[in-house]
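User: Could you walk me through two proteins back to back? I'd like the raw sequence and the structure tokens for each, with a short line separating them so I can tell where one ends and the next begins.

Assistant: Of course. Protein one, sequence then structure:
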Amino acid sequence: MSADSRIEAITRRIVERSRPSREVYLERVRGQISKGVHRSVLSCGNLAHGFAACSVGDKAALAGDIIPNLGIITAYNDMLSAHQPFETYPALIRKAAAEAGGIAQVAGGVPAMCDGVTQGQPGMELSLFSRDVIAMAAGIGLSHNMFDAAVFLGVCDKIVPGLVIAALTFGHLPSVFIPAGPMTTGLPNDEKSRIRQLYAEGKVGRAELLEAESKSYHGPGTCTFYGTANSNQMLMEIMGFHMPGASFINPNTPLRDALTKEATKRALAITAQGNEFTPAGEMIDERSIVNGVVGLHATGGSTNHTLHLVAMARAAGIHLTWQDISDLSDIVPLLARVYPNGLADVNHFHAAGGMGFLIKQLLKAGFVHDDVRTVYGQGLAAYTIDPRLGPDGNVIRQPSPEESADPKVLARIDTPFQPNGGLKMLTGNLGKAVIKVSAVKPERQVIEAPAIVFHDQQELQDAFKAGTLDRDFVAVVRFQGPKSNGMPELHRLTPPLGVLQDRGFKVALVTDGRMSGASGKVPAAIHVTPEAVDGGAIAKIRDGDVIRLDAIAGTLEVLAPAAEFAARPAIVADLSANEFGMGRELFAPLRRVAGPADEGASVLY
């Protein structure tokens, strides 16, 4: 299947732009591959340390170069619902590896924090940087050079992007990502959102709010709304890092365990000792990255991936830009309505046809590249399936249906919910920003109103509670960028802004911070760069300046005389309150060297 000519053109320009860095990257990967099985370079003392805790049989096997050894990088902890199921995975993986004639060892653990727990709290200021810490921690685990392939156990917001960066940094190794799956459906997401707004208005108390939240987040697995965590799972499948159909099977089910065993055996099958060697650095290329971006648009995915996809691509020597992402959004139609872009959750999405149906529709229109490499060993068409549990306990795959089981949740390519993906880049005299409009009503996609400036999200909350925001305005929440305070998500601002919008006021948000994968019905220009702490134009805005946010034209402007605005001094804020507490002092070096949002807000590149 050939790709649409517009998709091909964007892919080609990414290839050309990336050529110098991609060639250097591939040369390094191939240099590592040429060294053969890496345990062979270890001294006897090195190797003895590496298998000291193994059984006698495993020690004998690892002493040679024949039996493949699988390194497990795990983000397990039992506080977070999405990662708690991973507790039992290492034993399952070791057993499956032994059945396939291999060995598996836990190479290392990485931190896994939850933005849901830290939302609006000081710990959120560590969240974005945890991505790069995870990449480095995984790198430490794999640096022992004991492994022929790796499997990565991770699900949520920064964890998967960090693990992908690590997998591509160790691009000479085959890498398979093994998910845990979403929790079963609880309180509907729109009802949860309604209770949050009532709480923000003071119409229900904390007890009612906690009851609603607990009914929404009620068991093991990923949160069921379509935020960054579930966008991650979509990406891993459409980019070929998952086994086909693996993304959205609930935890602690026979099919989930069967998929985990299958992924383990496949990881061992694609090592250099076999006939299907698939190193991650060669497998993932510009076409894979484009497929990921297309999947993000087709599903109305997380705005956080305008940061993460850029950083992930950079780890493979590929230079993806916001303009590429925005241009692809103009081409790719929205095919999924999953909260916050609709009422359904990811379980409903999977039941309607899920990833297999989605990929089949995108292939029909040529919106994704079929001629890519995947861990499954075939092109993307092999992912147009519906996974089932076979009578012998193994995974069987049936062709995905031709029709959606619920057209209100998952649409055909010829009857999309909207003609574009809804993620756009904004440009203007404030620099560059990103906006997600797939959940914003068309009449609210252009806002022109006076600015009210805040230097802290709590200031906006306090103003809302004081009743001083009952008017048309654009909330400018600045000094929230990566160098300022780690670029926290500002999702707690959604309820008060949503209340004001529901009261009939024209409201919008402009910030150099993030707004999370749950970006919803309020127009929000986020990731503004240059950020305020770097003297960006957002630091020049004053209360009362008229701001025009036009998501249709793709512009973000302060409507002030150009010469006067350019001559204004940038405000300098006292950020000392963000420098200590909850570990923030440990991250001061990262804040100093963080890159701009449009380059992934990374400390690594």
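----
Protein two, same layout:
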Amino acid sequence: MSNSNPLDSQQLTVLQALELANAHWNAGQAAQAEQLCLRVLEVAPLQHDALNLLGLMMHAYGMQDQAIDYIRKACQSPEAPALIFSNLAELYRQKGLLLEAEQAARLAVEQEPELVVAWSNLGIILQEAGKFTDSLECLEYVVSLQPDNAEAHNNLANTCQRLGYLQRARESYQRALELRPEYAEVYSNLTLLLSDLGCIDEAAASARRAIDINPQLADAYLNLANIELSRMRYADARHWVNSLLEFAPQHVGGLTALAQIMIIDERYEDAVTFARKSLAITPDNANAHKVLGKARQGLGHYEEAEQAYNRAAELPGTVAEEALVARSVLLMEMGDKDAASAGFELALKRFPGSHRIVAARCDNKFYQPGDPDIDVMEAALAREPALPLNEQMLLHFSLGKAYLDINESERAFFHLDRGNAIKRATFSYDAEQISVWMKSVADVFTPALMERFRGAGAASERPVFIIGMPRSGTTLIEQILASHPGVCGAGELGALGRAVARGGRFPDDVASWGHGHFLNIGADYLEQTSHLAPDALRVVDKLPGNFLYAGLIPLLMQGARIIHCRRDPVDTCLSCYSKLFSGEQLFAYQLDELGQFYLDYQALMTHFRRVLPPECFIEVDYETVVDDLEGQARRLIDFINLPWDDACLAFYETRRIVRTASVAQVRQPIYASSRGRWHRHATHLGPLLDVLGVEQK
């Protein structure tokens, strides 16, 4: 070498410098390796091996953008081997740049058709992009090249699962475990498969096994958290996500999952914060954009929510379909039925024949005989291999609704019974225990206790609580009230339950509380809801299940009002049975349990009717509102001590977010078609009618 050669001081050739750099890197001497690579690049700026090694170093340091820059530059060398293109593809995939990843991986396999790692990377990239058939072809080729490669069988199983080939997926996972018995990733992935098969306890156990083998396997924590979310064990889900973030505080999936849990807790500002943290790390993460949309929607920032959904839908991958559906549902909740319909059609253009999209729009339409959506959903349920159980459940509920619309009772209950049975199998519920607990609530709220703590709570006329059974007309009453310019309809809030839980065990501790306890809990609720329409004279909280706290409300807040909605018991229960609730309505998925819960609720409200002060409590019958809208609307406005406004009679024109299963109904003038609906389906309601003591007619 000449004296001007930067490597000359050690008498190294470029090849020797690279060999030494790799040796330093393999020995954990990163600084020396990096210096040697940089010296090589001074002599040969496009030396692909040096650029590749620097890229791998940056990746190891967590500096993803610099890693991509180095390896992308390495690929510009005419001598760059296929492996470097494969490395670039993997870095792009980790960054969420799936289109760029696919291009790089295809260049790798074209250059070296038997490079297993490149085919494997391409198969995984196609899997994440939702191109499952192409992914399957790639990963089958990998297995043919390396039949004893446990990782290849695991990757193949993942794609089989996404295609719905559940038995084949299970066989591939088992083969991977035969080859590598302590393969944590397989146990983690089995969690998803077992969940799809409805084996929830086994799924959770598999995720725990993965964590036992590899306590830093992030996906296992996320999969276990999702299992707990699916069975509404929110504290457990939060525990597993927090456990992940303890050792990986910048994990995008963990931050996004925490944002989702914050949404469930109605901590929407916190959810926005965590979703933004995710996007600061990976700006093109579709799931984080989708979750940000949900958080924005919860805050009432509808334009920003729609923008976030649109961004998620623009990005490649499987989230796009969910984002398009979420955007359409947002438009439906905002009252723009035409825009929502157009949104669902747009989604179907992007994902033709999607049974998920067709099922999702069931609440935005009234079915007529011969509706092609019915055929799409029936065909999806009849397909082989069978869909995952959660997708079957969604289709059964949507078809149940469709057949109820067209008065085909036999087919409606064929699907409703199956949908409810799938849901009921995912959680534990003890109807007898609930009965005992509700009786204990009534026992606490005696006339003496109500008198003793009268006036103990915080003073405010803002809170108005609409309570009752779900599907009893609560959304209709809220919409009538919220049409008044002085009223904010806040939807179904969890604020009261949180405030009570922070105060102590309910109802066990109530009898031992003093005046200060009631005051503090009431103040807690008012603080939680203070950001909701600060200028509104009244804020309506229409969480039906707050009937459990009906005795507590006047003790917590002087001036709060309670409106109890009632409806024909069988119509109410039928309407519950026909809905897949987004919230925690565990009593609703088996007819006899549903009937028993109704009786327990009825007994509790009979007790509260005797002890609640009349100035804070009225009852409204759905059927009476149908018969006399103006009279009942005036009664309601008078009860909450506001002047009359004619807008309350045109409630269906009010543009506000409505997030309940009744979203479609409150967007039209009042109608009586659902009154006595149960009589048309009485032959399918035997267990419910028996419990309620109602004779079939």
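Residues 353-425 form one domain.

Let me know if you want the two compared in more detail.
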